[in-house]
Amino acid sequence: MPCKKEFPHLVQMQQKFGNKGFVIVSVHLNMGVDKDLGLSGVEKTAQTFLQKVKADFTNLVLDEPEQVWMARLETGAVPTLFLFNKQNRIAQKFIDIEDQAAFEKEISDLLDKP
């Protein structure tokens, strides 16, 4: 799963940039693969993974149908990463990050802006 592949890098970025005001909030999308588990099963599975990768930031489980969050977030791809600026506006939307160094540079540049 692409989300699980990228997640350890996000944990590293939180550790690296956290002192500059960088905050990660992850949202687990309760997609078709999880429907058989029920919400408590999804939460337990997610919790196990988050503990394994040492994700000590806010992690949420979204329990809305896929079509709802796809419309609200204006994406059908997962993972999608939204980078918000200091004014709480979306500064950039990333889908399937292939160049981690460029992604980190963009975040660093945004954090350095007043």
Overview of this protein structure:
This protein is of the alpha+beta class and 114 residues long. The chain has one domain (2-112): Glutaredoxin (3-Layer(aba) Sandwich). 46% of the residues lie in helices and 18% in strands. The protein has 4 helices and 4 strands. It has helices spanning 2-17, 38-52, 66-73, 100-112; strands at residues 25-29, 58-62, 80-84, 90-95. A two-stranded parallel sheet has the order 1-2. It has a two-stranded antiparallel ribbon with strand order 3-4. A hairpin with a 5-residue loop joins strand 3 and strand 4 (90-95). It is globular. The N and C termini lie far apart (36 Å).
Radius of gyration: 15 Å
β-sheet strand percentage: 15-25%
CATH superfamily: Glutaredoxin
CATH topology: Glutaredoxin
Q: In the CATH hierarchy, what is the architecture at level 2?
A: 3-Layer(aba) Sandwich
Q: What is the topology, as strand order, of the major beta sheet?
A: 1-2
C-alpha end-to-end distance? 36 Å
Q: Work out the helicity level.
A: 40-55%
Question: What are the defining features of this structure?
Answer:
114 residues, alpha+beta, two-stranded parallel sheet, two-stranded antiparallel ribbon
What's the SSE blueprint?
Blueprint: H1 2-17, E1 25-29, H2 38-52, E2 58-62, H3 66-73, E3 80-84, E4 90-95, H4 100-112
Brief summary of the model shown:
With about 110 residues, the protein is α+β, with helices and mostly antiparallel strands. Helix content is about 45%, strand content about 20%.
